[in-house]
Amino acid sequence: MNQSNCIVAQSGGPTVAINASLAGVIAGVKSSEKYDICYGAVNGILGILNENYLNLSDIFADDANLEKLKTTPAMYLGSCRHKLPDYKDDDSPYVYIFHQFDKLSIKAFFYIGGNDSMDTVLKLSDYAKKINSDVKIIGIPKTIDNDLCMTDHTPGFGSAAKYIASSMLEIAHDTFIYAVKSVTIVEIMGRDAGWLTAASALARNEYNTAPQFIYLPEVNFDKDKFVADIKEALAHTNNVIVAVSEGIHDADGSYITSSKAACDQFGHQQLSGAGKALEFIVKENIGVKVRSVEVNVLQRCASHLASLTDIEESFAQGKKGVTIAAEGVTASMVCLKRISNKPYQVEYTYSAIKDIANEAKSVPREWINDAGNDVKPELIEYLKPLIQGETAVAYKNGLPDYMDVSHLHKCN
After folding, report:
1. Which of 54, 60, 64, 44 is nearest to 114 (CA)?
2. What's the CATH fold of domain 5-156+303-359+388-408?
3. Which one from 119, 145, 147, 229 is the annotated catalytic residue?
4. Which of 187, 314, 384, 406 has the CB geometry, 3.0–4.6 Å to 17, for a possible disulfide?
5. Which residues hold diphosphate (predicted)?
């Protein structure tokens, strides 16, 4: 009997929940009558181009390992940031990839990733259509940036938001102890979309109003207005805390950074220094105690502070990817549709990849206040359900006990 196998890979930046989606794919294959073996390509699409595979069906035959995978951070299969050329300009990598699919009897390919990964899904889908391949190409979303279109929110975002809000509350506690005028600038990841920075507002409670100001890339940043905001706040409180996206920019579109940014393979500027730039502005114009904190990659792999909602939804989306592929769906990405906030309910569905790849979902302007320095209650209500619940992470010798990923750091 001819085998019908599938292959899965992970790409882009890591998250707390991307391995939960991988676990969902593996679990979906195990319970499927459509596929025999689930292979894993190591380091994204490069794993196929380099013929570097793992037999995930063997490795995760034990359900205990599958459960452990769900709470292991980052990517068990490793990642890459590799941009495929347009097949009309150079089809050689496509010919090779689909030759590998034939060689391994692959009938479905699942790519777990964010915006750039969905570009790969689109390109492979277009080429599959061109050559009349029956391989189903499915995107499974992930990104802490929460900027994929056609889905309510993305796997990984809820856990990162929980980490940001928790860290902001802890920074506030640290700041409150000094009875001196101070400003603390907290720079948070987010080049084009401010979802993660907006999540800092969840730190506010009955005794904490920090962050007093939130600046997102969806609104042009005005230096003079920023200085006025800080001066006004300092007139009423000793400690002002500001949350700022790394991608804030002025009305001309110039990023507010302390240094010139380089670009990655996909042409995205690799930003840093927005917090430091604002620190300098406060020093020069206000002259109070000021410091900047850059929350860089820590929230991407903080499984000890994961959102249970995020992990469960990520696992379910991985399984959904297998289900729709088995039903004959291709050139699509798994999506979430929110049914209600109270009680919180979602529906698992999918959308055509052509409507998702190379697009970005921004925070709606109507969810940001008129002054452009805070978020509205509608955004808080959107965010709250996504950070609920805690995961049961196993510990060993006082530290989290994660899956062994030694296969990722061996020299080639």
Report:
1. 44
2. Rossmann fold (3.40.50)
3. 145
4. 314
5. 13
